[in-house]
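Ticket #4471: structure export looks truncated?
Reporter: QA, pipeline team
Priority: medium

Steps to reproduce: submit the single chain below to the structure queue and open the exported record.
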Amino acid sequence: MKVLVIGKPVYNVILSLQNFVSEGAKYNLKEKLEMGGGAVYCAATLLNKWNTPVYFNGVVGSDAYGNKIKSELEGVGVNTKYIEINYEHPTGFNYILINNQNGSSTQIIVDNPDINLTKYKYDFIPDYIIMDGTDPAGSIAALNNFPKAISILFANKVSETVYNISKRCSYVVANMGYAKALAKMDLEFNKTKSLVNFMQKIKDLNKAQYIITLKEKGVLYVSDNKVKMLPAIKLEKIIDDTNSGNMFFGAFCFGLINNYGIDLAVKIANITGGLAMTKLGCIDAVPNLSEVLRLAGIKEENIDNNQDRPEETAPEIIETNKENPAPNVSQ
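Actual output as written to the record:
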């Protein structure tokens, strides 16, 4: 099983504050945390730590920060032979402010979105392509070159570029903001028909199968022609919510790659996204696989990364006509 991960990593600088910043105030911190980050960086890290090897391709600068990102990925076993070094532009930065009162994060990203991959050749044919839309050129090239690969996109930013990539994908993990912008509808969680109509609108616009993360509300998705909503797991304390969505994305990819099916893949991802909020950063925040599977009610010995993947089928289209009515909501 060959897995290709494409996207632009960033260098995270995490600053923990007792309260959120006030305009004009001055803060003196004793320490800061620095590490690699970004959605695909976290997904690649999780997959390799969970015994699902990946190839990573993205652009970093020819600086110490790019070198550290590459070194961290290699430290967990990620194949970085395709990482591209840009000698004219620095590695992107992400300054993360953590409010210690509630674990809420505020991110300030310094990066040039126009800096993309320029080399698109690989010495293997991927079975899966995992993307976050931060490198449109590399993503589109991979989709063009490997049309039979199962493609999974993390859509966490409202943009035409991300939407254009999503139209080519098999699965899209979208945050609530992106999904609402796409459907041009609000989510009314207490109205069953509204949730069905929302997912129907998404399906009408896009061939991909959508999984929508709803923060503390959980996850909304379609399986067996039914709209399903899985509640978020309960946590005693949130330390850092920065990478919850990223970890959800990586764990969902893990579930699909290991042939768990959509329901268990979402369940694994939902648990992982919650547990990731109990620690700072990315690599250290990857939950223990055995613990996640235990909470999901799955026996770890059932994993077989070398098993044959069943024949791929297109995501089931939700119809609204009388012959094939819209799906029902189930909890």
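Status: closed, not a bug. The export was complete when the record was re-opened. Leaving a note from the reviewer for reference: The two ends are 33 Å apart (CA to CA).
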